[in-house]
Automatic annotation (TrEMBL):
Tagged with keyword Transmembrane helix: yes
Domain of life: Bacteria
Cross-referenced Pfam families: DUF2254
Presence of the UniProt keyword Membrane in the record: yes
Ranges that cross the membrane: 21-40, 71-93, 114-132, 144-164
Cross-referenced InterPro entries: DUF2254_membrane
Annotated protein name in UniProt: Putative orphan protein
Organism of origin: Leeuwenhoekiella blandensis (strain CECT 7118 / CCUG 51940 / KCTC 22103 / MED217) (Flavobacterium sp. (strain MED217))
Keywords: Membrane, Transmembrane, Transmembrane helix
Length: 443
């Protein structure tokens, strides 16, 4: 039973990220609503309205057919145009920014809801059109259902205007960057709020001799069914250490976790059902992807084909805020049972590892650009002054600053430009509380 519930949760989590999920629900809703209106017509709703409010009822069969046929053709045209706009958005975002941002754009609920309402109205109009018979008189004609179809079609036009406005905003790089930032920030804040300051690395036993659990499929490790995994730990009286961080692409047969007890094949299969895999990457599931996507957008913006340093600078600004938030989260994560004992240890990306993999490609692609080097050092200067719960975080930041300064000395020949870059270095040295030295200009 637990296995079925866990798989259902993970299946629903992956299903809701598909572009066709919500439109399918709307389509089903349109079908149900159409049958409900036909049932109401059989109960005499149109006859009642003809007697009490005749102005609300369409009482001519040919007029009703013409209106519904026009609405069906018009809605199909709007659907084709709207889907084309979505495809153009995805293509432009992939070419100009980064292919990794596509899952986030596809999962935009606003656009899915608009397209779903189109489909629901289309199905409703077709259903009502089929119910109109040539011999209908005004008392048998589904006049009220036709009126509802007119109202729904007007709403389609209003939603189309909203869709054009929304799609024109969604294609702007600033909106895309802000959306990625907000998703990563929200996820980070959730993790920080769940952090227990009373726990430390020493509270969890060593897993060196524990039984390895090998993954039985290939894909991106996206989610963990925490409640189900906790229940398994309580049932088998064991502890689990997740060996790989979320967002990692895992091949079949690679160990994904370690268990303090030896489990049989059936128990291992139950444990593996707690891990969700996907072929796409969603920032709301893993904040690390937010860092990765913002970095890739910045690098793409600095390429000769795009040549948009303003976008790269904006990405570094948002990355600075995310790093400042990341400094408030420990490099380790535990999940406790009801007895407040840490029974699950999660593998996370260390701050040192994260900051290196963000700034390393930026240094490689921007080491000849004075403004970008200045901006990167300014970001590190800002982080140096931020509150941190991570041990040796200032040393990590200074190490990264030294790498940038070394690249600046190697890539910039103009002395005045180089001096401007090293002015930030001097500010960092002034507040340096560690023994770590910063690279000097003339050494």
């Amino acid at each position: 039973m637990l296995k079925i519930i866990t798989r259902s949760r993970l299946f629903i989590a992956n299903l809701t990220g598909k572009i066709g999920f919500y439109p399918s629900l709307f389509a089903l809703g349109g079908l149900v609503f159409g049958f409900a209106m036909l049932y109401a017509e059989d109960r005499g709703v149109s006859s009642f309205l003809i007697e009490n409010a005749p102005q609300l009822v369409i009482n001519d069969a040919e007029t009703a057919r013409t209106l519904l046929s026009t609405f069906i053709g018009g809605i199909i045209s709007l659907m084709v145009f709207s889907f084309s706009m979505v495809m153009i958005l995805l293509n432009q975002a992939s070419n100009n920014y980064s292919p990794r941002i596509l899952p986030g754009l596809i999962s935009n609920k606003k656009h899915q809801n608009v397209l779903g309402f189109y489909i629901a109205t289309l199905i409703y109009c077709i259903l009502i059109l089929l119910s109109i018979k040539p011999t209908d008189d005004k008392n048998q004609l589904p006049g009220f259902a036709v009126l509802v179809g007119i109202v729904l079609s007007m709403l389609v036009l209003a939603l189309f205007i909203y869709f054009i406005h929304s799609i024109s905003e969604a294609i702007q790089i600033n909106k895309i960057i802000e959306s990625i930032y907000n998703s990563a920030k929200t996820r980070l804040q959730q993790l920080i709020s769940k952090t227990d300051d009373a726990l430390s690395k020493e509270d969890f036993p060593s897993s060196e001799d524990w039984d390895a659990i090998e993954v039985n499929r290939t894909g991106y490790f996206q989610t963990i069914a925490v409640d189900a995994l906790l229940e398994l730990c309580n049932t088998y009286d064991c502890s689990v250490e997740v060996s790989v961080p979320k967002g990692t692409f895992i091949l079949q047969g690679i160990p994904i976790a370690k268990c303090s007890k030896a489990l049989d094949d059936k128990q291992k299969e139950q444990l593996l059902t707690c891990f969700g895999f996907s072929r796409s990457e969603i920032v709301s599931h893993n904040y690390i992807l937010g860092f990765k996507q913002l970095t890739e957008i910045a690098i793409k913006a600095m390429s000769p084909g795009i040549n948009d340093p303003g976008t790269a600078i904006t990405c570094i600004d948002y990355l600075s805020e995310l790093f400042a938030l990341r400094l408030k989260k420990e490099d380790f994560s535990f999940i406790k049972n009801q007895e407040k004992q840490a029974v699950i240890k999660l593998r996370t990306i260390d701050f040192k590892e994260l900051i290196y993999f963000v700034f390393a490609p930026l240094r490689a692609y921007c080491k000849h650009d004075v403004i970008m080097l200045h901006k990167m050092l300014t970001a590190l200067y800002f982080l140096q002054q931020s509150h941190s719960v991570i041990e040796n975080s200032e040393t990590i930041i200074i190490d990264e600053a030294n790498r940038i300064l070394e690249d600046a000395k190697a890539g910039i020949t103009n002395k005045e430009d180089l001096k401007g870059v090293f002015d930030i270095r001097n500010k960092m040295a002034a507040i340096n509380s560690t023994q770590k030295k910063l690279v000097a200009l003339d050494h």
